[in-house]
Write a structure and sequence with these properties.
Chain lengths: ~625, ~350
């Protein structure tokens, strides 16, 4: 049977199933095949906090959305064009996001009375007409997989588990994906059990062949490669990029790296990744709690390592006192907060940007630190290097605010040339710096950066004591002198302000925008996509994105004042907006959402259109 | 462990230029003097010695030592020192802490440092009171203790610091007293020679808020009958005339004190700090009663187990041994590992 081939410029597919159905892996593989083809990609995994929520229930649904296009895209897509639903729960949980006309591929084997009842379907939605507006493709994914593997030497359970590969094979056929990387992946993954390698490959091929032969799928689609700058690419998640950024910072600073961490979603993967790279001189310590994790990192920094601690919001709360100590000690330290929805345990696998206030202000005393935020998965690599640069050059704690959306989302990453990465080498103090040529003044500052010398234990002649008690200027001796305290508090603030950060750039291709959208962190993608959509419809709007939240670029006030209206979308209740209003006396409009999910480009577009119209 | 070299340092070399600011008569002075005059023995250059402390009167200690030092935050010194020690095996790292610092707010870090066997020498100045905050009861204060925060007497049962350390898998556990310099230094010596965590409880008098807490152990009239001086390889007898001894009654779980005259010599326990089974040192730690009678001092336990520092370093070295090429090449290789594609 010859199939019609249709060209598309972009597609959004969502794989959804029970958390035991392997949807994350399926999505990952599809993404990898798509990357090989050269499309631009953006992905969004969405999984439950429970490791194994009861099978077949709504809380147990896990999904993975992948958006790919023949042009450069900024988000994982608002609404899927295709939903793969492995069971009734997956259908029910995801149908709300599906526009009419979308394709739904369902695993009919799971649509049993019992499973339907579990999620409150009184009638089978595949039969009661409720899906009439959609293009439903009923497929017996489980039974066909088991059938295809009848001759294989695998248990029924293993055969059933391979159904995700059948689904992947079918989708790979539908979208003409190259599958060599998946075959290689299966060979690696099941290397210890060759029978599973052949079974899973057979399931994949059965899915592919099913697409080719069945009449239900009459059309095959193609999405041409995107025009991307030349170079070598890989698909990368934010957490993986962040870990690589830390390794790169170690290489470029020529310092040993010490990571202290206590497991917490969604930051643990950074610990997992870094623990694999000891050959780069990286020590990872799974500490007894977050306080010990940052304490050990600070102790290592005192000894001359690049000290790092990674956590999420609840962990940053515990680390607060030690961050203040690092402020007083003026030692380099990188604190990574992969934000999740709070307060308290909140929604640990969902995203939010509500730790900005804590990063900027959440400590006792006047304890200013530098704060930066990556804007996309691959940007986490460069943000980690930038955090290390600031920490090392300015001898200060730096808080890096990632979030669940960038941490687990992925996109193609143009691999940087290692030699082009910033040189992060710093010099330890080796000589007395007092005027008499023999005393060492641990708090004598570099006039440009206001940083104090980093004199590590083991250096002869520079023995000195540091601590949390207020220190006298220059000597570092304990001091309760009022004027000295006032001076030191102001100096610590000035130290942060002295950090050089690039100017805020504005994207306003039409040049006549009166409305500026200001964002920070992971909202970059949805804001950018919304702005593009508006511009395509003839409206002018400017976009600027803050990477450095403390200190802010020097031109922020000037940029804000150029526009009639400034809109600040955030996944919190207006934390950056408050800072901007207080600091620049600009009547910024906050636009907030805290649903544990990223903004959709469409909702931002609607909101912005309103603002532009009334500007 | 730092290599000893022939240095000619004296106690004076270890005195910093900071004015010592404990209350006159505080036991901390005696400990400071004992440590300063012990340090030259280590034969380690001053720049390779680091004192890390938490918060409390005792934790002011690093300011007075002319070595590297960090006065950190309440309870966290073992954690901070762990990061330092694990990454800098060339240093000799000492932790100074108080009973509140180590056992209350920092209890978690203490036990984890001990179980990891980090190469730290931990000196716990136990005055059985919160000194710096002016006299509240501490986790080592006696049940019923009347303090500023317990006018009707404390309802908390205390920790036995040595039992706690042993339960946390400590490889070296000892106890000494501020006023007995010779003994104090003998325990420090053994602690310094130990590879791994060495936990030393030092009974310290706070003459302002808990004066006389250990008087029976110091008073020439009572001390010999109260103190059990543990000597490795020696039968455990004590009392002015050796009239008491320690035995292990058959069928019993622990150790007991008897009159020497009433037992045959072979029944007397011969002290062996190297007993692998921690139950022995634990039984020793349980001997004293509330009245301080039968208080053992000396080295209770001294066994060998790989230190955290050594394990961490050997993993690093094993990984680095496999490396070829510059770190930059390695990094370039790592970045481009996995599924990549090239656009021309
Ligand atoms: C986070 C925090 N909580 C409370 C305090 C107040 N504080 C300082 S020292 C101390 C207790 C000290 O007792 P101990 O460790 O026994 O030391 P000592 O003064 O007796 O030597 C307390 C509660 C503090 N500095 N930091
Ligand atoms: S309060 Fe007690 S422990 Fe503190 S310095 Fe005074 S005597 Fe020493
Ligand atoms: Mg105390």
């Amino acid at each position: 049977m010859t199939k019609q081939v249709r060209q598309l410029d972009r597609v959004v597919i969502r794989f959804a199933g029970d958390s035991g159905d392997g949807m994350q892996l399926t999505g990952d593989r599809f993404t990898s095949e798509t990357a090989q083809l050269g499309n631009d990609i953006s992905t969004l995994p969405n999984f439950p906090a429970e490791i194994r929520a009861p099978a077949g229930t709504l809380p147990g649904v896990s999904s993975f959305q992948v958006h790919f296009a023949d042009y450069d895209i900024l988000t994982p897509g608002d609404a899927p064009n295709v939903l793969v639903a492995m069971n009734p729960a997956a259908l029910k949980a995801n149908l709300v996001d599906l526009p009419r006309g979308a394709d739904i591929i369902v695993n009919t084997d799971e649509f049993t009375k019992r499973n339907l009842a579990k999620v409150g379907y009184a009638a089978n939605p595949l039969e009661d007409g409720s899906l009439d507006g959609y293009a439903v493709h009923p497929v017996g994914l489980t039974s066909m997989t088991v059938g295809a593997l009848a001759e294989h030497d695998v248990s029924k359970k293993d055969a059933e588990r391979a159904k995700n590969m059948f689904a992947l094979g079918l989708l790979s056929w539908m979208y003409s994906r190259p599958y060599e990387s998946t075959i290689r992946f299966l060979e690696r993954k099941f290397a210890a059990r060759p029978e599973l390698v052949t079974a899973n490959i057979a399931a994949f091929k059965a899915g592919w062949n099913f697409g080719e032969t069945t009449e239900d799928f009459s059309v095959r689609y193609e999405v041409k490669p995107a025009k991307m700058p030349p170079g070598t690419y890989r698909n990368i998640t934010g957490n993986a990029a962040l870990a690589l950024g830390i390794i790169a910072a170690g290489v470029r600073s020529k310092l040993p790296v010490f990571l202290g961490a206590y497991p917490i979603t969604p930051a643990s993967d950074i610990l997992h990744e870094l623990s694999k790279h000891k050959r780069f001189g990286i020590t990872t310590m799974q500490a007894e709690d977050e306080i010990a994790a940052i304490g050990a990192a600070l102790g290592a920094a005192y000894g001359g390592s690049l000290g790092i601690t990674t956590t999420s919001g609840p962990g940053v709360a515990l680390k607060g006192e030690t961050i203040s100590l690092a402020v007083a000690l003026e030692l380099p330290l990188v604190v990574v907060d992969v934000q999740r929805a709070g307060p308290s345990t909140g929604m640990p696998t969902k995203t939010e940007q509500a730790d900005l206030n804590m990063a900027l202000f959440g400590r006792h005393g006047e304890a200013p630190v530098a704060v930066i935020a990556p804007r996309s998965p691959s940007d986490c690599f460069h943000a980690a290097i930038e955090a290390a640069r600031i920490a090392l050059t300015h001898r200060t704690p730096v808080i890096l605010l990632s979030d669940n959306y960038v941490a687990n989302g992925s996109e193609p990453w143009l691999l940087p040339d290692v030699d082009s990465l910033p040189d992060l080498r710093v010099e330890f103090a080796t000589q007395p710096n007092g005027e008499d040529g023999s005393t060492f003044l641990p708090y004598l500052r570099d006039p440009r950066t206001l940083a104090r010398p980093w004199a590590i234990p083991g250096t002869p002649g520079l023995e000195h004591r540091i601590g949390g008690l207020e220190k006298a200027d220059k000597t570092g001796d304990i001091s309760y002198d009022p004027a000295n305290h006032d001076f030191m508090v102001r100096t610590r603030a000035a130290r942060i302000e002295a950090i050089e950060v690039p100017d805020l750039e504005v994207e306003d291709p039409d040049g006549d925008a009166r409305v500026l959208v200001l964002g920070w962190g992971s909202t970059y993608g949805p804001i950018g996509a919304a702005c593009r959509a508006l511009r395509q419809r003839g409206q002018s709007v400017a976009q600027a994105h803050l990477r450095h939240l403390a200190p802010m670029p020097r031109n922020v006030g000037e940029v804000l004042r150029r526009y009639d209206r400034v809109v600040i979308p955030e996944m919190n209740l207006g934390q950056l907006a408050n800072v901007i209003r207080a600091r620049f006396l600009v009547d910024a409009i906050p636009y907030n959402q805290v649903r544990g999910l990223p903004f959709t480009a469409a909702e931002l577009e609607t909101m912005l259109e309103e603002v532009v119209k009334n500007a | 462990m730092p290599e000893p070299v022939a240095l000619k340092l004296t106690a004076k070399d270890f005195k910093s230029d900071q004015e010592v600011r404990w209350c006159p008569g505080c036991g901390d002075y005696a400990i400071l003097a004992a440590v300063q005059s012990f340090m030259p023995e280590l034969n380690i250059p001053r720049e390779r010695i680091v004192f890390v402390s938490g918060i409390g009167c005792s934790s002011r200690f690093p300011y007075y030592m002319n070595t590297y030092g960090m006065h950190s935050i309440h309870g966290r010194a073992p954690a901070i020192a762990t990061g330092l020690s694990a990454t800098r095996p060339d240093l000799s790292v000492w932790v100074v802490t108080g009973d509140g610092d180590a056992l209350s707010i920092g209890g978690n870090h203490l036990i984890h440092a001990l179980r990891r066997n980090v190469n730290l020498k931990i000196l716990l100045f136990n005055n059985r009171i919160y000194g710096l905050t002016k006299g509240q009861y501490s986790p080592t204060s006696e049940l019923g203790k009347i303090t500023k925060s317990t006018p009707a007497g404390s309802a908390d049962s205390p920790f036995n610091p040595l039992s706690l350390a042993l339960g946390a898998e400590a490889t070296f556990v000892g106890r000494t007293i501020d006023s007995d310099r010779k003994h104090l230094q003998s325990v420090l010596r053994a602690a310094a020679e130990h590879n791994g965590s060495a936990f030393v409880e030092i009974y310290q008098n706070c003459n302002i808020f808990n004066d006389g807490a250990f008087d029976e152990l110091k008073d020439p009239g009572t001390r010999d009958d109260y103190l059990i001086r543990l000597e490795h390889g020696q039968p455990i007898t004590f009392g002015k005339d050796g009239q008491f001894c320690v035995v292990h009654p058959p069928g019993g779980f622990g150790l007991e004190v008897r009159e020497t005259a009433m037992v045959s010599p072979e029944e007397i326990v011969v002290h062996d700090a190297g007993v692998a089974e921690p139950a022995y040192a634990f039984a020793l730690s349980r001997l004293p009663g509330l009245d301080l009678r039968n208080t053992p001092i000396g080295v209770f336990r001294n066994v060998s187990r790989p230190s955290y520092d050594d394990l961490v370093q050997s993993q690093l070295e094993a990984a680095k041994a496999k490396v070829t090429g510059t770190p930059e090449d390695q990094l370039a290789g790592l970045l481009s590992s996995g599924d990549t594609w090239t656009i021309i």
